[in-house]
Amino acid sequence: MEKQKFYVVGIGPGDRDQMTLKAYKTLQDVDIIAGYGTYIDLVKPFFPDKEYLQNGMTGEVKRCEMALAKAKEGKTVAMISSGDPGIYGMSGLVMELAKDMDIEVETIPGITAAASGASLLGAPLMHDFAVISLSDRLTEWETIKDRVKFASFADFIIVLYNPRSKGRPTLIDEARNIMLKSKAPETPVGLVKNIGRDGEEVILTTLSEMDIEDVDMFTTVFIGNKQTYIHNGRMITPRGYLEKKGKKS
């Protein structure tokens, strides 16, 4: 007898045009779509006749348990995550909870904010980069600070997820001060807000001049490396092709 299938689906930024065809087809075929309320609201217009399971932002474990219980009843369920479910998404938790169940979990990837945000900025991620979440709800702040410190020292381009919320309004400024110990004040910074949604906005600035009031939980922050520059409203990190041919970018 085949195992019951359970899907963890990345919906990308939330806009239909940036959802993969496989993700869309999977959501078309399942019986139930489960997820955080904000993400449910993004997909409901595309799948109005589906059954939905939803709860609040901090109810991840309960949400997964409810969805897996439906799968055990024989329903085909998709747990949705914004962006990619394997990058700060729900894939890991679902797999941990389902490991002793007779359920096969399949992850359907989606476009993460680092990729969708970079496309709006220009070409900021053309060299090595680190993605770091500033949320200290599940990770100690001291650990996060170490990651910011060493990624900056190694001259990685840095992409910050979950950079600022009402409950932790100053952590982005602490992170900036850590980065300024290794990165120049004029290092280009791109702020991309509400990617693929109403209110989408791109702000180009520098590390020292970045206004943290422009940053919220729906912002993805891109901090360049030593080669990154801004030209004609585009944030560009050279890969090195022109330099290799003896030309300056």
- Quickly give the structural class: alpha/beta
Uncertain stretches of 5 or more adjacent residues: none
Number of domains: 2
Based on CA inertia axes, which overall geometry fits? elongated
CATH fold-level assignment of the largest domain: Methyltransferase, Cobalt-precorrin-4 Transmethylase, Domain 2
Number of H/I helices: 8
**CATH superfamily caption of the largest domain:** Tetrapyrrole methylase, C-terminal domain
- Helix % is 25-40%
What is the percentage of strand-forming residues?
Answer: 25-35%
Describe, in plain words, how this protein is organized in 3D.
The chain has helices at 21-29, 37-43, 60-72, 91-98, 113-121, 141-153, 171-179, 241-244; strands at 4-10, 32-36, 51-55, 77-81, 103-108, 122-123, 129-133, 157-161, 188-193, 201-206, 219-223, 229-231, 234-236. β9 (188-193) and β10 form a beta hairpin. The longest helix is centred in the first third of the chain and has 13 residues, at 60-72. The strands form three sheets. A five-stranded parallel sheet has the order 3-2-4-1-5, sandwiched between helices. With 249 residues, it is of the alpha/beta class.
